[in-house]
Amino acid sequence: MTLTQHVRNGWYLGAWSDEIGRTLKQRWITDIPVCFYRLPDQTVTAVEDRCPHRKYPLSLGHLDDDGTLQCDYHGYRFDGQGVCVGVAEQADKPKAALRRFPLVERDGAVWIWPGDPELADESLLPDTSWLNDPNWTHVHGVVPLKARHLLLLENLLDLTHETFLHPTSIGNAAVAATPIDVTVDGDRVGFSRRMIGIEAPPFYEKSCGLTSPVDRWQDGDFYPPGIFVLNIRVAATGTEEPDGFHMKVLYGMTPGRGNETHDFYALGRDYLIDDEELTKFQHEQQLAVMQEDVDALEAQEIMYATDPGGTAESSIKSDLAALRGRRAVAKMLTREQQADGTRPRASA
Q1: Helix and strand numbers, DSSP H then E, in the chain
Q2: pTM of the predicted structure, to 2 decimals
Q3: Edge-to-edge order in the sheet of strand 137-145
Q4: How far is Cα 330 from Cα 326, in angstroms, rounded to an integer?
Q5: Considering just the CA atoms, what is the radius of gyration of the chain in Å?
Q6: Tens digit of pLDDT for each residue in 274-304?
Q7: How does DSSP classify residue 346?
Q8: Residues 101, 120: Cα–Cα separation, whole Å
Q9: CA torsion sign, 267 to 272 to 273 to 275?
Q10: What's the CA gap between 223 and 225, in Å, rounded?
Q11: Which residues on neighbouring strands pair with residue 15, listed in sequence order?
């Protein structure tokens, strides 16, 4: 299995809205250096972070009040559309322009399409209205991961790992013991797990005030190449919908430079939304769970990186959603390579 290639014709979470302002911000995405910033009208723009003169990072330059971006190596200046408008202190006006990326800013998230701009389709983005819904509250952030993004993808599509990696928080034996139903709709992969009459994991005991037995639902959707949304419902056994405690977790699995990944996350809930102590507790728990995943995935990355021959893998029924997700990304990459006539791209 080759895991070192990136689909570019797809949406990735490039930044949270509150990360982007009038300060130039560099972030590598699918092995492309990207410079994010806001124009005077507060719209977000993203350009390739290489000056066309001598490839100096534009993010090391500065932004004028009128939105003009200046490269601080030799003074090339670019307007809000990325067109060179001259060179500081010189009479030259080169015919040069920056590569600009399609962006969608919605519900506090900035989505980027690093591939062919003519293929960028906003309808492929998931519904994230809960991030801006007054009946919900959420926390969000980004965690660096020194492992390829497909390892994170498989981690999220096979939640049986919760039993073993997260036994003191969100995991218990019921997760690994309960089978999933898997659906495929085009490139999109979904799964559903219904755990009925189980012991309440510690996280849900503390954050929902529940005692065992409980019913716990997990409904996950993967939007290739890098978006995952998990819908969670926990309630006292026998409680009918819509009653119960509902949470959502959004992950933006964005390839960075080489085999590094930006692990964006948002955790939301529809209950006790004004309880700041609960929000703090849930955020701390989210970060602790993610750190356990990071530790596991970075150890896994070393094993893949030192196994160039690709030792045969063993799979079981619980791997089905992860295998379907892996296949969806592989198909997207194949289509992309066939369309542009390129050889497979390997990470730098």
Answers
A1: 6, 17
A2: 0.94
A3: 137-145, 261-269, 245-255, 227-236, 214-223, 188-198, 181-185
A4: 6
A5: 22
A6: 999 999 999 999 999 999 999 999 999 999 9
A7: P
A8: 10
A9: negative
A10: 6
A11: 110
